[in-house]
Amino acid sequence: MRILEAVSQTGRNGAMIYARRIIPLLRARGHEVWLAARADSWIARETAGEAKLIETDFSRWPMTELRRMAEVCRHERIEVTHSHLTRASNFCLLLRILHGIPAVAHAHSHQFQPHWYFQKLVVAVSRETLRRHRRRGAAWGQRGRVLHNFVDVEKFAPAAVGADGGLDPLRAAGGIPAGSPVVLQVGEINPRKGQLDTLQAAARIRRAHPAARFVFVGTERCQDDYRRALREAETGGKLEGAVAWLGPREDIAQLLPHATIAILPSHHESFSLAGLEAMACGVPLVATNVGGFPEMVEQGVTGLLVAPQDSVALAGAISALLEDPVRRATLGAAGLARALAEFGPEAHMTRLEALLAEGARS
Which domains does the chain have, with CATH numbers? Predict the structure, then answer.
């Protein structure tokens, strides 16, 4: 097939990472792939040489850019557009309605936008995401399908036994002594991801586990009041020296396997790539019982689920695992087995191909 991946954000988030991962996989399966994006975007830089870039800012008014892109699609004989994020999905919807270019829209989040009412084929990353859109009257019947995210099981894998001759990469990055248990949270620094809940839980955990360290990896995307709340929680919880903020990292696959526990205390979530990555690394996962997490984690078997915005429950789950290395190993092994069996790339790409082919016919 001749596929146009349309990605409108310039920075990096879960949807961008997903789109970046499928481009080489589609090419490896014999498809021709174009990328519609801004030239200065993260994904355009990342896929240079892998996809043919069609530079666009996805402007819808005046309609000059829509007409130009429609002409490009006809010239390149694009069979279907596959859009990610709101601006790109709105743009590709208009390409379909005004110019007859078939379109598939990927719903990476619960966030509702009016364009979902008019899409012919919506691919949601979790059953909960699809349910939320349907509650608002969109994506009914065969117009809405579920396709869980997948994890790169070659890149994200357990740490090799005995591979570290000294301090492992995670503890080295955080300035953490060897042997200290590390609770790792990967994700954007913002209220939705629950870092404040983690710090509140950490203050409780440290009373029984003073050696425990808490490491945060992710880009700050929050207001000043949330930054202040995080600082106050760290100071008020007497967590000085127990917390490391590593910022955005390109080496998460090297850091993650060395975590003692991975946590994702999100207030709401569609279907977390970070959760799948922790499972693929064999790291026991504690997440909140929201969004797509129950579709990813089998409670008490492949991880633990707690109520959102409940730092007491979060502290209890983490403490229980810190006290039980056997259970940590059991949960980590079960999570790894499930990641390999259900969330690998091969089954995902086969299903995605079928959905894109269906979209091309609609």
Answer: 2-150+344-361 (3.40.50.2000), 169-342 (3.40.50.2000)
